[in-house]
Amino acid sequence: MALSFLKIRFLLLCTLSALLLLCLSVAHAGPPARRPRPLLRPPQLLLPVVKDEATNQYVTTGLALGDPPVPRKLVVDLGGRFLWVDCESGYLSRAYRPGRCMSPECALAASGGCHSCLAGPRPGCNNNTCSLFPENPITNRNAVGELAEDRLSLQLTVTPQNGTRAPSGPFVVFPRVLFSCAPALLTRGLAPGAQGTVGLGRSRIALPTQLTTSQFKIPPIFALCLSPSAPSPGVVFFGAGPYTFLPGKDLSTALTYTPLFINPVSTVRGPTHGEPSDEYFVLLQSILVNGRRVPVNESLLSVDGQGRGGTKVSTVTRFTTLESSIYHPFVKAFFQEAASMGLVRVRSVAPFGACFGAGNVTWQRAGPVVPAVDLVLDGENTTWRIFGANSVVQVGRDVLCLAFVDGGANPRTSVVIGGHQLEDNLLQFDLVNSRLGITPSLLFAQTSCANFRANV
């Protein structure tokens, strides 16, 4: 019995010793390596966008700059070359770094040269820094600004668990994002309180491009969905779909595509004039009203060697603008069709050149029932149909106006598709394949751009 007891005791000691050695080995080696979870798809980031009631400009406060991060109210400029901010009005950040002359950052930004500032040092005013020329897209004025880099925070989308509106996603930080400091006077004409603009154009330091080169490996694709209601925000998604809106609709499945074209000559003033444009151009082949083709000079629909003509998409142009020789036959065709529907033309209300009484107008889900306008674009079966909610605007109790304006006899761009026509349509800018995806009006899909919270 004693021998048996000793054997049992020996075995217990051996077991305890083995366990101790195992624990020491694990403690020395560190925790066991975990297999990383596969990334199902690159993440999406979002930027809420709201229409300013005073100016009808589209602004965001969802972007924060600096350390500590400070939300900035910025006008969304679809064709803007980069992000610029007023740095004269109390810009403070521990992470701010000016772009030094001859640095790789200056080369990437295609800087316009070096400058000095005797009133500094401070953000926007440092010696031996490279210059950019930020532009106010509302006034078309520009100024000399300092290239800089700072921390930027954006919201990460999270998928809801129960198909309802999810809480806001976490913010993610990009430690080095290039932008331009600008003088305070450049903000004149922007929405009240706006401190600059966020450029979504095709340049190497536009926001979509910089997010593409970030640690998150977001593809160079973003989607824009503007809400017509000032209290209810729309959204910019950075990254590929799905783009899910209430009540659980993935709008990426409804996209049809048309090629994006590069205008060989920039329309921006300053040193970049004459370089390729960073704006988004498409090939408009024809305009239809209730299925009937509007007679226009088709040469105006293409961009010539001097960068004139063609069609671009803009968030800073309020209403679609047509060159005069396109505008007048378009209005004539619209009212020929409107007369057959019992609509009566009335005196125009500026800035619109064509208005009609609201008395005989009926309404449906997509707005007032008026002649349908089709923009026939290059690409297979790519027709952008514009219904009443986007083709007309109510300017008084009894008056509706055609929401297209006369752009004059010799504008630089023949057709500018403006913000009013973009509202409640999802547009995907796919820079991988150089194409624009367009959904039909979301109003027929029983949702709207304000319902993007179904995906955040």
UniProtKB/TrEMBL annotation:
Example GO biological process: proteolysis
Cross-referenced Gene3D superfamilies: Acid Proteases (2.40.70.10)
Molecular function per GO: aspartic-type endopeptidase activity
Primary subcellular site in the record, as a coarse category: secreted
Keyword Secreted recorded: yes
Family: Belongs to the peptidase A1 family.
Protein name according to UniProt: Peptidase A1 domain-containing protein
